[in-house]
Amino acid sequence: MSIRYNAAEAEPRWRAVWEREQIFRAVERPGAPKYYVLEMFPYPSGKIHIGHGRNYVMGDVVARFKRAQGFNVLHPMGWDAFGMPAENAAMEQKSHPRQWTEANIAAMKEQLRLLGLSIDWSREIATCDPAYYVQQQRIFLKMLNSGLAYRRESSVNWDPVDQTVLANEQVIDGRGWRSGALVETRKLTQWFLRITEFADELLDALKTLDRWPEKVRVMQENWIGRSEGLRFQFRVTNAPRPEAETIDVFTTRPDTIFGASFCALAPDHPVSLALAETDAPLADFIAECRRHGTSEAALETLEKKGFDTGLRVAHPFEEGETLPVYVANFVLMGYGTGAIFGCPAHDQRDLDFARKYKLPVRPVVVPVDVLPSDFEVADEAYTGDGRLANSHFLNGMSIAEAKAAVADRMEGAGIGERQIQFRLRDWGISRQRYWGCPIPVIHCEACGVVPVPEKDLPVRLPDDVTFDAPGNPLDRHPTWKNVACPDCGKPARRETDTMDTFVDSSWYFARFCSPHSDQIVDRAAVDYWLPVDQYIGGVEHAILHLLYARFYTRAMQRFGLVGEAEPFAGLFTQGMITHETYKDAAGHWLFPDEVEKGEDGKAVRKGTDEAVQIGPIEKMSKSKKNVVPPEAVASTYGVDCARWFMLSDTPPERDSEWTQAGVDGAWRFTQRVFRIVSENAADLPPRGAVGPNASSATALELRQATHRAIADVTADLEGFRFNRAVARIYELVNVLNGFKPAAADDKAALREALEALTLLIAPMTPHLAEECWRILGGEKLVALAQWPAADPELIRRDRVTIAVQVNGKRRGEIEIARDADEETVRGAALGLEAVTRAIGDNAIRKVVVVPNRIANIVVGEAKGA
RNA sequence: GCGGACGUGGCGGAACCGGUAGACGCAACGGACUUAAAAUCCGUUUCCCGUCAGGGAGUGAGGGUUCGAGUCCCUCCGUCCGCACCA
Fold it and tell me: From the CA of A334, how many Å to the C1' of B53?
């Protein structure tokens, strides 16, 4: 009869023990090496599915591994609890955002506990808790005082029917997602945080983040987008009104000035707007541009369109030459000056535009090996290197020389200056929504913007709000909105915008260090724990969240709140879990557990013969119902099985598909480990009684396998290669499976191997490991046990197998002493029959020997030929 | 459109620094055990030709560098992520 591991019984039992012993509670121990592991905290959207779990399981493996290595580990969890879904639920289900959110948090917390995560729950925080957001309001006020927070006008997507601002994702084909109304661009006065003040620093410090993925650093670098260029002024020759007498442009290619054939203004450029006042067709064109929303992707994929304003500007160097001025839909007001000059020959966008409006295309940069007279630009702009041509005083110069020459002249003439421009814009944080952190200011007609005094903090969200009317409930809340001015006492009104939820997540990692402090943070605690040693989350946050957090940490450093400028020393971006999708005949999505698959791979609705269509494999999401709840796996297979499966096979940074076959495989593994341990346990020498010895060949082999596994798994966990660690453990288990102890030495070696196996799986399948540890007679808990060390003597291999190639093609292999000299390898290689056959009559030209790796015999044509 | 990544057997993937491609898992097939099934154990499994021996091809496509390329370079194709009010 086989021995079964009853996960459903064992797992809750061990979780109760961990909880009772409070072994995951983090306490600052000055002098002890610390390790702060953090997964990006979840938005409490409802129930979690197994797809959310991967992130936390990876973090938990790191936390448990580092704890075993002797680090004082901080592994906290909290809730990114403000955001739009709570308000959408309020509108659709008549639930209050707070109740909806709190219920979700309670449900999700239970689910996370089920996963067996080694989290210090005493540090739990929720961003919608006034105890959290009061500190966030304090930080905001510090920013306001220091000039890092300010107000200005900016454009938003406006839904005229719902009377609300729309997120870019809520604008679908230019229409509001709920109302279907055509979206307008509207100007609102909004709060901004001056992230651009740190642009250079945020860029430079990327170099120091050597434990971040290269791709994330590159993305941030491009996002910040530092470029050196020239800002200069065009004089308008036929200005109809005073505000249109000059046009300022910014360019990174001043060298191409003689190839300029037009100027283009952003639709909301002040000159465009001024001209539109007396030009109805232009006003219509601008209105049309505004219907395309504010997203960069939408603007850039649009067909390039322009409107000729009739204005002409003088070319700065060509006497008498003028260029037309267009308003163009692809020019962004938010970048540079909101106006450009177009050089079609050397910029693809400008070229498309010029072809459409039949503007001249004059090449001014010519590749060095081409004659200027032969060089033409057809459908593709030339952006490569070359020499200047058709450019008067620039002719013959390199691009760099020409850029400098133009800049010098413009600066000399007082019409331009060199400028460093960033793509990065200041961060607009105003949201016209209820469920967010209130911005703690009061607007007074007499005193202006007045910060809410410290004694009145926090500005709490009122609970008595309704969502039955369009717009922001705070804006129509009479008693909350209307207050006395703290300065002059006259009637004033509260700021009704709330903060972007990205603000909430920009400093929570610091709050976790002292989650119950009545200060923003406790300086001693942040000094001990920060930076986060390992941060784990999805790549989708590679730019915004991580950049905002880096900015906030710098701001907090400026205020003396923290000592570090960089919040995350190590970053890992994990992939999503995917699953097949299913639809019934009517086209409705089905949950995987509503579907049954037959032998032929065809699917039917469970318990019926109704055909189910199997759709593509996609990211697990509630909307497509391709989700698996953790409870379902836990109750039948155990969460360790789910954890093991999530770590197996697929590299952690890649998307991984959840399949029943994979779960079955993981389940077999957990059973197998348990069986090997329990079948052998009784027959082993007592723990610690006999030191492992290697006098028998079988014992030595097992010990070598054990120690290689220890070394490899340690390196793989260290390097975030969980799938490889899993493979190495399978290898050890395969060895153990066939191992029949004979001599006493074998049994001691077997004990060593089983204990090592238990310790190695402990970070990944912690409940199973506790059970095995108990069976093996281990003291205390495996969660508190020390990580095993590999003995270098047992890892070394004395003989190596090296491949022998003839002209790069493998013809055989030789087994030879490690580090054998070249002559020996050469002799052995040439002695192989297959090798001599492959050489045949050819002359040996050279033999390449790479020690312990390969021998390659290079042969030429036949001897004497 | 711009920016970033990825592409290896039937499937997920491994391959450290340019050095035996396919570790490990899944699936499939064959066998053992069993009254039978499940579970378990043993074996085979990149493809093509071949009974074997052996030979040939092969890491999205095409080219290049090298004694040697999955790995480096160029061009192309495909898939995925981000683009500032989703989190």
Answer: 74
Ramachandran class of A601: left when φ > 0, alpha when ψ lies in -120 to 50, beta otherwise: left
For residue range A7-61, list pLDDT tens digits in order: 999 999 999 999 999 999 999 999 999 999 999 999 998 888 888 889 999 999 9
Of residues 690 to 719 in chain A, which lie within 7 A of strand B by their beta carbon?
A: none
β-strand pairing of A534-538 with A34-39: parallel
CA–CA distance, A52 with A640 (Å, rounded to integer):
16
Which nucleotide is closest to the Cα of A845 by its C1'?
A: B67
Instruction: Check residues 719 to 738 of chain A and report those whose beta carbon is under 7 Å from nucleic acid strand B.
Output: 721, 723-724, 726-727, 730-731, 734, 737-738
Within 7 Å: CB of A85 and strand B? yes
Contact flag, residue A578 CB and nucleic strand B, below 7 A = no
DSSP A102-128: HHHHHHHHHHHHHTT----GGG-EETT
Closest CA to A62 of A656, A756, A718: A718
Which nucleotide, over all strands, has the C1' atom closest to the CA of A334?
B84
Q: How far apart are CA A213 and CA A651, in angstroms?
A: 14
Query: Which nucleotides in chain B lie less than 7 Å from some protein C-beta?
Result: 1-5, 12-16, 19-21, 23-27, 39-42, 54-56, 67-69, 80-87
* Residue A170 Cβ under 7 A from any strand B atom: yes
Tokens of A439: 């911005």
The per-residue DSSP string of A593-609 comes to GGEEE-TTS-EEETTS-
| Spacing of A652 CA from B7 C1' in Å | 17
Buried b (16+ CB within 10 A) or exposed e, A564-573: bbbbbbbbbb
- In whole angstroms, what separates CA A223 from the centre of its chain? 14
The DSSP-derived string for A372-397 is GGG---SSS---S--EE-S-GGGTT-
Nearest nucleotide (C1') to the CA of residue A223?
A: B3
Per-residue model confidence as pLDDT tens digits over A204-250? 999 899 899 888 998 899 899 898 899 999 999 988 888 888 999 99
Decide if A510 contacts A458 (C-beta within 8 A). Answer: no
Omega within 30 of 0 (cis) for the link into A44: no
Measured in Å, how far apart are chain A's first and last C-alpha atoms?
73
pLDDT of A182 above 90: no
Read off the amino acid at residue A491. Answer: P
**Cβ atoms within 10 Å of A697's Cβ, excluding its own:** 10
Q: Which of residues 506-535 of A touch strand B (CB under 7 A)?
A: none
Is the pLDDT score of A286 beyond 50? yes
Answer yes or no: is A620 CB < 7 A from strand B: no
CA at A661, C1' at B27: how many angstroms apart? 9
**Could you give the ipTM of this predicted complex?**
0.94
Q: In the complex, which nucleotide's C1' lies nearest to the CA atom of residue A299?
A: B1
Q: A317 near A258, Cβ under 8 Å?
A: yes
Cβ-proximal residues to A666 (8 Å cutoff; 6+ apart), any chain? A637, A641, A642, A644, A645, A648
Q: CA angle, corner A359, sides to A230 and A283, nearest 5?
A: 80
- What's the CA–C1' distance between A347 and B33, in Å? 75
Asked whether the bond before A531 is cis by omega within 30 degrees of 0, the reply is yes
Q: Which residues of A832-854 are buried (b: 16+ CB within 10 A; e: fewer)?
A: beebeebbeebeeeebebeeeeb
Give me the A residues in range 772-801 that sit within 7 A (CB) of strand B. 801
Distance CA A278, CA A275 (A): 6
Q: Sign of the C-alpha dihedral, residues A620, A626, A632, A633?
A: negative
Q: What 3-state class would DSSP assign to A584? A: coil
Identify which of A782, A538, A820 has the alpha carbon closest to the alpha carbon of residue A640: A782
For the question of whether the overall pTM of this predicted structure is more than 0.95, the answer is no
Q: Shortest CA–C1' contact from A171: which nucleotide? A: B85
